[in-house]
Amino acid sequence: MSARASSWFGRGAVLALALSLSACGGDEAPVTDDDAGPGDSGTDASPSRPADPYADEVVEYLPGPGAGFGQDRFPSIVLGAPVGAGLDSGSLDVLSLGQGGSITLRFTDIAVVDGPGVDLLVFENGFLIAGGPRAFTERGRVSVSDDGVQWHEFPCAPSDATNNYPGCAGVRPVTANPAAGISATDPAVAGGDGFDLATVGLARARYVRIVDAGTNGSAGTSAGFDLDAVAVVNGVSLTAAP
What we know:
Residues about 1-40 and about 40-50 have low confidence and may be disordered. A five-stranded antiparallel beta sheet has the order 2-4-13-9-10, with no helix packed on it. A four-stranded antiparallel beta sheet has the order 1-16-5-12, with no helix packed on it. The chain is built from one helix and 16 strands. It is an all-beta fold. The radius of gyration is 17 Å and the shape is globular. The longest helix is centred in the C-terminal third of the chain and has 4 residues, at about 185-190.
């Protein structure tokens, strides 16, 4: 682990980059940024913007059938801190990906690095079913990249209910909520699903991609994986002087 790697806490300002929602007939106008997108490298975040541990930009959103929920608040709804509703209630602060849909996010001020234990948390809106220990889940596959070109996918078993869908996102309820004073960067209290870069042999990541596993139910405009937020647990500044 780099000597500069550390855990990040708190919430600062975020800068959203949205791509067109034309794939799903949305009304969002496309917004572009010459500095963003696959293939870039380096430390290009603005030093005047406070660093925070949450995703800063949406690089790509490809909604699948049944998507729609949360698009009226896109892209801000998936940027910044999660708004967990606790163990027995699903949050509405989410964007539905739809069946087989995907979203790619980028960190511009802090990169995820391989540190002790969990390095990255992904927050959906699973919740415990009343009267039992098992949760209502909608699973997603998670991939990470440092350059936006070469991707490393975490192993995920989206149909293995017996073992609680090992390696998938969207399994654990979310308790992290800044309004309640519950940190989104502490795996011990935040809930959500943790990912260790060592699992895929990557030292640093600046991009996260989540793809609906295709094994989830469909209901109206909220089909598939429902993304709330992603947060860096072990990170290194991309704006600090070398």
